[in-house]
Amino acid sequence: xxxxxxxxxxxxxxxxxxxxxxxxxxxxxxxxxxxxxxxxxxxxxxxxxxxxxxxxxxxxxxxxxxxxxxxxxxxxxxxxxxxxxxxxxxxxxxxxxxxxxxxxxxxxxxx
Length: 111
What we know:
By secondary structure, the protein is mainly α. The chain folds into 2 domains: 2-57, 434 Repressor (Amino-terminal Domain) (Orthogonal Bundle), CATH 1.10.260.40; 71-111. Helices cover 68% and strands 0% of the residues. The chain has helices spanning 2-7, 12-19, 23-30, 38-48, 52-57, 75-110. α2 (12-19) crosses α3 (23-30). It is rod-shaped, with a radius of gyration of 34 Å.
């Protein structure tokens, strides 16, 4: 705790004032003669900008990595995710179909 306090440029008196306790209490915590109660630990964590795990255990909690696995998509999920691909392909397909129909119609009338 001493390292955290000095990193914040706080004296024992300054920290004690923030916590509304005596300087001797801070000294006892730093020397391992006493331990702060839970509400003081929460305040200390906020003052020092660290987690309670770091304050108590002197290590950061392990981060749990969550990997979301995607299952099969239904049609609506696919369209909502890939609309930017589906729309141009649809327009292109209708254009080809319309062009083919035009060619077929022209062929019927030219005979």
